[in-house]
């Protein structure tokens, strides 16, 4: 990998035996990540061909958790690039990249977890991860890299209803929190050295990302203290989370501009996409300010300075990218995500797709940095894949917050219809079985939507609101919410159909009285 701070080149030498039929060799004790191969030293009259070498894809044997496909070629390609990045960074541990350090930096897998777990089941893998983290009790000094020792047990509960890991490692988790409070906290504010690592817009203060990470850590501790029956701790952490939330608002919200900035009311400068999204996604925003902050996020996305100066661009990094995607979608601005996906200059996923000398057909995995430099195979900017599953396809598992039985697991099916996407389908393996959905719309405006709910699971189906909705007999109409008609359904397969606006693909909003079963 080259002489330098990260190490030196790795060499393998093989001496041929000169067999007439040729010979096959591969390394036994290590693996190499590659996207092209350079062959030198061959006779002048010999022309190599691709059949000389076979690339073998390696990954941990983890179960497939879900699938996604759509009618849109670009979305499908970015999804496949994300999926390959996830797969090639799953070996004996999570790695940051398969071709350089191969180290298990926690934020590299915690931050895109919303996308990773939709592709692979991590129930066993995360248990092993926690065993590694808890074996010595050591943790990273930067809060958003060190807090995996708290967030991994929390994720295991939210995704797989597990409380045994948090109970086993409760002392290690409290040790980390105590360290942060002793060494890093100043009046409920934490300054994180790496800020929003690899973001295109490097103006987000580490005080914002650090305090956000501190808040999430303490909220997770409050929930897990309750789940493990540490009642006194639960009350303490709940109260502490409220104080951190207030401190975040006081320190960073600029009331005049309605934006989060590095210096709050002292300056309107340095308002970034990441700062707005962290506040929105973690519900650090006061309800009366939510619309202003969402509008700020949209404005900062559309007006972000890019190479060509056209259209919206997503500028977030390791910490901010997931919250940006989730905040826009939760705020009903999926159109912004769609528009950003159409861009081809830095920073954009289209920039990864563009041909280069080394990649004539563009990247096949997600790069580490928006400028295409450094590693070509990282997970940290692949958070957009979460939107493909939750938004475009529309399968939304609801995280648990109590010691609920997995029979109480809830699902929401809500497809987000965007521009040129005519159809999408997805699956997700819940603890009770596979959830599945598929939707399609025609040029004439006919919309069909089929969902499959696993056994012992309730679901809410949100159908784009129209004048006449046809659904299965077992679907119960609940009411209208914006442009969606809400139904509750039991286990089984249910199909809905409706009429959309054939010109722009959006639904026509009519009164609930016009709805039919």
TrEMBL record:
GO biological process: carbohydrate metabolic process
Alpha-L-rhamnosidase concanavalin-like domain boundaries: 12-56
One Pfam match: Bac_rhamnosid_C
GO molecular function, one term: alpha-L-rhamnosidase activity
Stored InterPro entries: 6-hairpin_glycosidase_sf, 6hp_glycosidase-like_sf, Alpha_rhamnosid, Bac_rhamnosid6H, Bac_rhamnosid_C, Rhamnosid_concanavalin
Domain Alpha-L-rhamnosidase C-terminal: 409-471
Uppermost EC category: hydrolase
Species of origin: Byssothecium circinans
Catalyzed chemical reaction(s): Hydrolysis of terminal non-reducing alpha-L-rhamnose residues in alpha-L-rhamnosides
Name of this chain's protein: alpha-L-rhamnosidase
Chain ranges of the Alpha-L-rhamnosidase six-hairpin glycosidase domain: 65-392
Claim: Plastid is one of the keywords in the record: no
Keyword list, A-Z: Hydrolase
Record-listed E.C. numbers: 3.2.1.40
Gene3D superfamilies linked: 1.50.10.10, Galactose-binding domain-like, Maltose phosphorylase, domain 3
Domain of life: Eukaryota
């Amino acid at each position: 990998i080259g002489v330098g701070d990260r190490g030196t080149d790795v060499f393998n030498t093989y001496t041929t035996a000169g067999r007439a039929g040729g010979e096959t060799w591969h390394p036994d004790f290590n693996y190499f990540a590659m996207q092209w191969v350079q062959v030198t030293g061959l006779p002048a009259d010999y022309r190599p061909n691709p059949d000389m070498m076979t690339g073998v894809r390696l990954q941990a044997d983890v179960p497939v958790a879900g699938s996604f496909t759509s009618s849109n070629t670009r979305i499908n390609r970015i999804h496949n690039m994300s999926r390959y990045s996830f797969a090639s960074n799953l070996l004996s541990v999570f790695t940051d990249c398969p071709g350089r350090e191969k180290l298990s930096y926690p934020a590299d897998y915690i931050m895109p977890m919303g996308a990773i777990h939709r592709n692979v089941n991590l129930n066993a893998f995360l248990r092993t991860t926690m065993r590694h983290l808890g074996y010595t009790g050591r943790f990273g000094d930067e809060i958003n890299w060190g807090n995996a020792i708290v967030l991994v047990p929390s994720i295991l509960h939210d995704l797989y209803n597990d409380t045994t890991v948090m109970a086993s490692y409760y002392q290690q988790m409290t040790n980390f929190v105590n360290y942060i409070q002793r060494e890093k906290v100043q009046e409920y504010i934490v300054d994180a050295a790496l800020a929003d690592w690899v973001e295109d817009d490097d103006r987000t203060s580490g005080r914002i990302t650090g305090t956000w990470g501190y808040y999430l850590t303490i909220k997770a501790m409050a929930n897990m203290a309750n789940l493990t029956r540490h009642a006194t701790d639960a009350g303490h952490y709940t109260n502490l989370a409220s104080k951190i939330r207030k401190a975040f608002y006081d320190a960073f919200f600029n009331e005049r501009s309605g934006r989060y900035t590095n210096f709050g009311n002292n300056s309107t400068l340095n308002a970034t996409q990441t700062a707005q999204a962290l506040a929105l996604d973690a519900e650090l925003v006061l309800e009366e300010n939510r619309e202003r902050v969402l509008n700020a996020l949209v404005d900062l996305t559309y007006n972000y300075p890019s190479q060509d100066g056209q259209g919206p661009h997503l500028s977030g990094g390791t910490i901010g990218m997931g919250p940006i995607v989730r905040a826009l979608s939760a705020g009903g601005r999926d159109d912004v995500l769609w528009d950003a996906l159409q861009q081809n200059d830095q920073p954009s996923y289209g920039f990864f797709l563009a041909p280069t000398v080394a990649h004539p057909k563009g990247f096949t995995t997600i790069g580490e940095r928006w400028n295409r430099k450094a590693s070509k195979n990282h997970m940290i900017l692949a958070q957009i894949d979460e939107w493909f599953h939750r938004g475009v396809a529309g399968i939304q598992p609801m995280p648990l917050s109590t010691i609920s039985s997995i029979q109480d697991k809830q699902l929401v099916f809500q497809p987000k219809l965007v521009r040129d996407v005519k159809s999408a389908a997805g699956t997700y393996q819940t603890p009770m079985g596979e959830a599945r959905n598929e939707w399609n719309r025609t040029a004439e405006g006919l919309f069909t939507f089929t969902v499959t709910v696993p056994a012992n699971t309730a679901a809410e189906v949100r159908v784009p609101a129209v004048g006449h909705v046809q659904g299965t007999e077992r679907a119960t109409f609940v009411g209208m919410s914006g442009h969606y008609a809400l139904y509750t359904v039991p286990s089984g397969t249910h199909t809905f159909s409706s009429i959309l606006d054939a010109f722009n693909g959006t639904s026509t909003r009519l009164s609930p009285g016009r709805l039919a079963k």
